[in-house]
Specification:
The chain is built from 12 helices and 17 strands. By secondary structure, it is α/β, with parallel strands linked by helices. It is 34% helix and 23% strand. One of its GO terms (molecular function) is UDP-N-acetylglucosamine diphosphorylase activity. InterPro entries: Nucleotide-diphossugar_trans, UDP-sugar_pyrophosphorylase.
Length: 353
């Protein structure tokens, strides 16, 4: 890929710095990076645009439910229209045929701990607690089987606080098998100025500039940590992937039941009063997730212009101070996963206030 300049730091400096650089190089998914670089200059569509263009399809295979109804899980009477969906979801959860991937976003974090960071962490931990308490309420008395898999994808600096929080509260009495994964990052690259193309930028001779790629990286994180293999082995059939926010409900029987009984590859929860791509809640059949692992090239990347101070080599390493956007980070939305399935294999839960 013409990125040999990142190897220069392996020839100079102390051993621990050279080892740091080597670990960073080994961790880069160069095939994925090449796919992301090829997206530069290509148009991309947002999820709101997709919903607008395909509204008839989403309406045809959807249910419409109020947020209050969803939170209170009010579908226990047998004459309720959603009773069968609810019971189907409970069966999946009680038999540990369902797994949950929770994505914690911290895109504004600058790498330094501040009083503001502490308040943000406290707020997100409170949201996390509410999600787990909601699970306990939705599941009521779950038949004891194997633990429900919960995979938390998070920035590295948040993993320990969440691990400690779960441990201190004994998982809130919920039978969970928990993995914590660090969110996937890709290197920052220079804006191409000639035929040599984009180059990976360095913060120092031994440190590669990198940034999280966003929610679309969840599948690559599951693959690189062998979680997909584990989920297949224990017989998981459906996987919920959602963001941490005030409106998310994880492990909801009604949502799992909808996707299962409609025999959908993908279920999407659509909040009618928002078009924010950072708020997402989807369920994938395990069958389709396995198919997606062979279609990573269909995930769409959006290059984001950035200002980055970096070092470059001119006989020796010197610092470059950009006066204008000089680089790209890459963002991949979870909604680009919809490129891997046909519209008639989707179902939607439309939620209104």
């Amino acid at each position: 890929m013409g990125q040999t300049h990142i190897l220069e730091g392996l020839r100079i400096g102390e051993k621990d710095r050279r080892n740091l650089l080597a670990r960073q190089i080994v961790s880069i998914d160069f095939k994925l990076l090449q796919h992301a670089i090829q997206s530069i200059g290509r148009p991309s569509n947002s999820f709101p645009e997709s919903v607008s263009a395909n509204s008839a399809t989403y309406l045809k295979n959807s249910v419409r439910i109020s947020q209050d109804y969803l939170i209170n899980c009010a579908s226990e009477a047998k004459d309720e229209a959603n009773y069968l969906l609810h019971q189907e979801g409970l069966q999946l959860l009680s038999k540990s045929k369902a797994a949950i991937v929770l994505i914690i976003n911290d895109k504004d974090h600058n790498g330094e701990v501040s009083e503001t960071d502490g308040r943000v962490l406290k707020s997100s931990v409170s949201q996390f607690e509410n999600l787990l308490l909601g699970c306990k309420r939705f599941w009521k008395v779950k038949e004891q089987g194997s633990a429900v898999p919960l995979i938390v994808v998070s920035p590295a600096h948040l993993i320990r606080p969440y691990q400690e929080f779960l441990s201190e509260n004994d998982h809130f009495g919920i039978d969970l098998k928990v993995w914590f994964l660090e969110e996937l990052q890709l290197p920052i690259v220079s804006m191409p100025i000639d035929q040599s193309g984009s180059k990976i930028l360095l913060k120092s001779s031994w440190e590669i500039l990198q940034a999280p790629i966003g929610s679309g990286g969840f599948l690559m994180s599951l693959l690189s940590n062998n979680i997909m293999t584990e989920l297949n082995k224990i017989g998981v059939e459906y996987v919920q992937v959602c963001s941490l926010n005030d409106r998310t409900t994880i492990g909801h029987p009604l949502f799992f039941g909808l996707v299962s009984l409609r025999r959908a590859d993908v279920g999407i929860k659509i909040f009618e009063n928002t078009a924010e791509e950072d708020e997402f809640d989807m369920i994938f059949s395990m069958r389709h997730l396995n198919k997606m692992t062979r279609q990573i090239d269909k995930f769409q990347f959006r290059p984001v212009p950035e200002h980055y101070l970096h070092v470059k080599q001119e006989n020796e390493f010197v610092t470059a101070y950009p006066g204008a956007p000089n680089s790209y980070s890459f963002h991949c939305s979870i909604y680009s996963s919809l490129n891997t399935c046909s519209l008639d294999s989707l179902c939607a839960m439309k939620v209104f206030e």
